[in-house]
Amino acid sequence: MSYLDQITSPTLLLDEKICRNNLKNMAAKAAKNGMKLMPHFKTAQSHQIGNWAKDYGITEVTASSLKMAEYLCDQGWENIHIAFPFNPLEAKKLNELAVKQSFSVQLINTDTTQKLVEVLTNDVGFFIEIDAGYGRTGVEVSDFGLIEAILKIAKQSSHLHFRGFYLHPGHTYYADIPKIYEQTRQALAMLKSKYQSEYPDLVTRTGDTPGCSVTDDFGDIDEMGPGNFVFYDLMQSTLGSCAKSDIAVAMAVPVVDIKKDRNEILIHGGGVHFAKDVLPHEDGGKNFGEVVYLHDQGWSIPNDGSHLKSISQEHGIIKASDDLISKVKVGDLLGILPIHSCMTADAMGAYLTLDGKWVDHAEGV
Known about the structure:
The chain is of the alpha/beta class. Helices cover 30% and strands 27% of the residues. The mean pLDDT is 95.
């Protein structure tokens, strides 16, 4: 029986072969640069996909919340890093989980550092998150006073251990990637040089998918933790991080009506399935996803401009090419490549593989 025979409502499809290839390629790039890869599982959020990652020598993983980190516990990871400024209200919970699982967290202020000093009775590592131009979060790269205040407070605890510096250059989504990565290399190299004599085992880590996908020279950065590369998506394709053929997920959606006079197709598939990330379309409108044709082996990618032009909660309207409108029937299934696979996967909470098997997701529990 084809996987397509299982689908009656919006369903997120996962091509295991493409996903594994993305994992393999990024692991190879990390190895080539002498770096360790700790993929950010904010995208996949899956035990099964974690097992695939282990096949390529990946032994540590990154999460975006303590909730996600807890889901990833008991899976044999050497360490789970929480790549978000740590929430001090969760210090007690972190301490409980650290009995059985190695964790590291990110610190950006003295208040949270002090809270962990007071609460921890189990070992936890920490990175100081650095802001070298993104402007979202982190200690400014030149704020040595704050860096040293965090380190001084952490020394009060025998359970809080400095691991190094983390820098997420998220502005690679909006600006010149080579220029930004030159700044990233310089910032982390400067911090390593300044603090390595006191902390000889410190490491530096970066972790955005656009930069990790296209950069060839990482300088002496030790670790990378990109996330979206596991699936990629249309946003990454637009940025040049991947080809559309590297996108490992597609939403299967039922066709519920057709307006041939307007070249529009109504689908069951809206914001609750895709989220509402959007790209500008070449015709001046909006693009919430691009149409692919589903078949028993997966999907094929046409080059005819058919795209999801609007969505509401459950509805989606496809602006269809003449070729698509001539072929499609009410009751058919179409595929949609997502704009932002992380948000789409989070909204759906499960994956269906092309061999008809369901793959877990943290939000599906």
